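Duplicate of earlier report; Bifunctional protein FolD input re-posted below.
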Amino acid sequence: MPALVLDGKVLAKSREQQLKTVIDQLVSEGGRKPALATILVGDDPSSATYVQMKINACGRVGMGSQSIAMPASTSTEELLAEIHRLNNDPKVNGILLQHPVPDQIDERACFDAIALEKDVDGVTTQGFGRMAMGEHAFGSATPAGIMTLLKHYDIVIEGKHAVVVGRSPILGKPMAAMLLNANATVTLCHSRTIDLATLVRQADIVVGAVGQPELIKAEWIKDGAVVIDAGYHEGGIGDIEKTGLESRVSALTPVPGGVGPMTINTLISQTLESVQRNLM
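Output:
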């Protein structure tokens, strides 16, 4: 039986329609249009493309956006000043600092300067801590999007053994915490894990989040597993080798069109939630 395709592109499109309905109603009742501020430091073309995709998504749902472009020579202090300005701007409901920033900038200090209530990309240390402890915080956009995708397709998480390959603070680590909070048994691995293949073979749910093309081999994945690939590399290749998996696993995400659209959808959804929480 062919694997169930966890289609993030289709789900994101459906959720955008729902978001647009809510935003239109909010504005028609006299509320301010939600707005996301994006900060791009430098001229990396891939980062510029990702930021534009997020701005386009805002437009599709009727959400406002501010686009701030800063030169590659920007200092940590200059970036912090811009973040503080946006924190204090009542017209801004969410702040996205596009990763990565140039090497001379203290990225973690800048992430942590984002006000918790505007941290709609889920990048602050405080937000991560609250999420890991089961308290409210905006989750890191990619793992939170994956959780939404799993829920939509009724993928059972409770009691399952999930193996997350990748330990970045905005993907692998929060992914492991979210799965643990959903009552999975979680093993967190990375590129230096000894005998990675053996650990992956034990997984009911495999999440590729290591940022290396096809590091996780298809032969490592057991029949019936759920395969989530959060990687994207040139040529439409993910972190997980897909050869033959379609006929063996129970469900899998396509690359592209699986996790990526849900990342952007989560970002704009959490920006709307920021507005709604302020109205409570």
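The chain has two domains: 30-115, 141-259.

Merging into the original ticket.
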